[in-house]
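Re: the request from the purification team.
They wanted to know what the chain is likely to look like in 3D before they choose a buffer screen. I agreed to run a prediction and write the result into the notebook, where they can find it.
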Amino acid sequence: MTQEEKYEFIGKLAISLYSKEIKISLSSLKSILKDRNVIYESNRGLAKAVSSAYKYWNKKDNVIHSAIAYTYTDKNGNLPWM
């Protein structure tokens, strides 16, 4: 999976979850990506990918861009940047 395909997947998953008011942890996202043969050794590396996807979607679709910001949480259920 290319970087762009990862960003597309992270964004489309975020908008799907956001539309149902579902938030998931980065660890859960890591498991979902692992099922798609995209391996991240740590949440730190995954957080960088989510940040890149956030920036990628800012240029394409502001709704998905915002969904990424509010869908993925830290291990305590908080938004990671708060």
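For the purification team: Residues 3-73 form one domain.
Please add any questions underneath this entry.
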